[in-house]
Design brief:
The complex is a heterodimer. By secondary structure, chain A is α+β, with helices and mostly antiparallel strands. Chain A starts with a strand and ends in an 8-residue tail after the last strand. Chain B is an all-alpha fold. The chains are: A alpha+beta, B mainly alpha. At the A-B interface, β6 of A face α9 and α10 of B.
């Protein structure tokens, strides 16, 4: 048995919550359905998904604030499905820190500790672990965002929880603080061999912290796997789009070599890799915009040039890169370095040939319910 | 703090640009209202002679009435806090139409004419009333006793307690409660260690408002317990017997007592809050 085991967990709010906003799961009366996964000790599972997907509900169900309608939660070999929150041994952290505003930093960290001789020492240890010893006498209102989150972490650490639950703990911080704290958090979780579940919608955080990633949509897990797998081999078109890939519906698909297929696109043919579950009748093409090869298509070019022909519709700077909006029947984008883009000397209306390494073009099954 | 400064700055700019309009729509109505509140009270006070005041203040039944009013209002405020705080907490945390219905019920005493409230209370706490007949053998009577005064005061003033405390509890982030639970606190411990310390200002404000409303109550008190006389009833009687002179003198005395206790309590709420604020 694993350290944490979720078996077919379902959480519902019967006839509750506002209708509309396209919450399909809620229409059926469920905000989570059939959620199963397990984590080993010392691992971090990242829950990734759009707002309203049920990430926070799952976290709060683990903490004991929502009653499971079906399924079980096992932690350290014990069924905790119906234990009250105070008996579960979870360390909960929120995006907005949730420090007790009427208590000093010291009293915040000591909140979960019994009055005993060791209490002061444990507060000191916990603050030391997060580098916040100097804040001990301060009030939460006088702390910066980063300092608050350190104190919140110390407060959770002090009670030595069996499982840490992080609900977007870094997303309210500025970029620099966030990066620094993320690295510290990663080191701390490793050195304490702490097990945690981490909700985020930041891909960088998911990759940096996760030993595994679960992508959630409409209250159900769409894909569960190691980070590189989720990002490189998304399970369907929706997950592909969610992890930042371009997803287009190809004109036609033809069988290629083993594990490959030929994609008809913009008067050309591209070789692509077949993802798990993709069949040639319904598959979509997914790729990262930075993996495309763009060449200028002069009038003299041979018509049998392999790549797809596309028209440049717009060229936009995106941070340090340039984004090319292209049309080859379907619309998609490519990302190029500035220098590369300048050398191509493109302007809107120009024709280009688009190609890519077959390993970088992935055929994925369509999104469930035809939506992404 | 920065937000406050920015908001202040914005106001100043708006004030300069719309000076005339601001006067017509803000300062003028505000000033009129303030005058409307203060003028009758000040005029009553100004009409008194020192001799008249001191002679009325020396009357033993006047002293007794004022003291009874203060006493009963204080007990009412205490009872309202003890009974109203749990309901306020439940209302602040509860969701769903049932809770909204209860909220409306709590406000009902505000909409009932107070003489009607007194009559309704008589049906329950009177000699033949449901509760009245039940408690009479135990020696607790509500008809014509201080207990009856407190019951009448409580009925008409408890909405202030519940509403104010509910507002206080609603201001506590539910996530604080969740964190406290995961740190090992039971729901009752969370109430004591997180909710009450953060919402106590709302609770105390409610008690102060309840006190102020209770001391000024006359309608329901007159129906349920004309005797022993509270200050407003005594003032009414003086007015019927001797006219405006003695009645207004006693009114000023009551105002002084009410105002001073009210101000002390308000100072307590705001003063300690400021000292306790980070």
């Amino acid at each position: 048995m694993s350290y944490l085991d979720l078996r077919g967990l379902a959480v519902g709010f019967p006839a509750a919550g506002p209708r509309g906003r396209g919450a399909r799961a809620r229409e059926r009366g469920f905000s989570l359905r059939d959620v199963s996964f397990s984590i080993e000790q010392g691992q971090t599972l990242v829950l990734l998904g759009p707002s309203g997907a049920g990430k926070s509900v799952l976290l709060e169900t683990l903490a004991g604030f929502h009653r499971a309608r079906a399924g079980q939660i096992w932690l350290c070999g014990r069924d905790i499905t119906f234990l009250p929150p105070e008996e579960r041994g979870m360390g909960l952290m929120f995006q907005d820190y949730a420090l007790f505003p009427h208590l000093t930093v010291e009293a915040n960290v000591a909140f979960g500790l019994r009055r005993s001789a060791g209490r002061e020492r444990r507060v000191d240890e916990a603050l030391g672990l997060v580098g916040a010893r100097h804040l001990v006498g301060r009030r939460p209102a006088t702390l910066s965002g980063g300092e608050k989150q350190r104190v919140a972490l110390a407060r959770a650490l002090a009670v030595e929880p069996r499982l840490f639950l992080f609900d977007e703990p870094l997303s309210a911080l500025d970029a620099t603080t966030r990066e620094g704290l993320r690295e510290e958090l990663r080191g701390l979780l490793r050195s304490l061999n702490a097990t945690s579940i981490y909700v985020t919608h930041d891909h960088v955080e998911a990759l940096a912290l996760g030993d595994a990633i679960a992508v959630i949509r409409d209250g159900a897990i769409q894909q569960l796997g190691p980070p590189h797998q989720v990002f490189a081999r998304p399970a369907d078109a929706w997950v592909a789009a969610f992890v930042g890939m371009q997803v287009i519906c190809p004109e036609a698909l033809l069988p290629g070599g083993p594990g490959r297929a030929l994609v008809r696109l913009g008067d050309g043919t591209l070789e692509a890799t077949c993802g798990a579950g993709a069949d040639l009748a319904t598959a979509w093409l997914a790729f990262r915009p930075e993996d495309l090869r763009i060449e200028r298509l002069a009038a003299a070019d041979r018509p049998d040039h392999g790549g797809a022909r596309a028209t440049v519709e717009a060229i936009l700077p995106v941070g340090p890169l340039q984004r090319l909006d292209l049309c080859a029947g379907a619309r998609f984008s490519a990302l190029l370095g500035r220098r590369e883009c300048r050398l191509l000397g493109l302007s809107p209306g120009d024709r280009v040939a688009v190609s890519a390494d077959p390993d970088d073009l992935l055929l994925v099954p369509p999104a469930p319910e035809g939506r992404y | 703090m920065a937000g406050a400064v920015a908001a202040g700055g914005r106001q100043a700019v708006a004030g300069r640009r719309f000076g005339g309009l601001a006067f017509v729509f803000l300062w003028l109505p505000a000033g009129l209202l303030l005058g409307f509140i203060l003028l009758p009270l000040l005029r009553t006070a100004a009409a008194q002679s020192w001799g008249g005041l001191s002679s009325v203040a020396a009357m033993s039944d006047v002293q007794a009435a004022i003291w009874l009013s203060v006493e009963c209002a204080a007990i009412t405020a205490l009872a309202a806090a003890v009974l109203g705080t749990p309901l306020a907490y439940l209302l602040a945390r509860g969701q769903g139409p049932g809770y909204r219905l209860v909220e409306a019920l709590v406000d009902l005493p505000l909409a009932v004419p107070h003489t009607v409230a007194g009559i309704a209370l008589l049906f329950v706490f009177g000699r033949d009333g449901l509760v009245g007949s039940l408690l009479a053998p135990l020696g607790l009577q509500f008809w014509g006793t201080a207990a009856g005064i407190v019951i009448a005061m409580l009925f008409v003033s408890v909405p202030y307690m519940v509403n104010s405390a509910q507002l206080g509890f609603a201001g506590v982030d539910p996530r604080l409660e969740k964190v406290a639970r995961t740190l090992g606190a039971t729901p009752l411990q969370v109430l004591g260690r997180v909710d009450l310390p953060l919402a106590w200002r709302g609770v105390l404000t409610g008690a102060v408002l309840t006190y102020a409303r209770a001391i000024s109550e006359i309608g329901s008190v007159m129906v349920l317990a004309y005797y022993p006389m509270t200050a407003p009833v005594k003032i009414y009687e003086l007015y019927l017997e001797t006219g405006l002179g003695q009645a207004s003198a006693m009114a000023v005395l009551l105002l002084l007592v009410t105002l001073s206790t009210f101000l002390v309590m308000r100072g307590l709420v705001h003063g300690t809050w400021r000292a306790g604020a980070p």
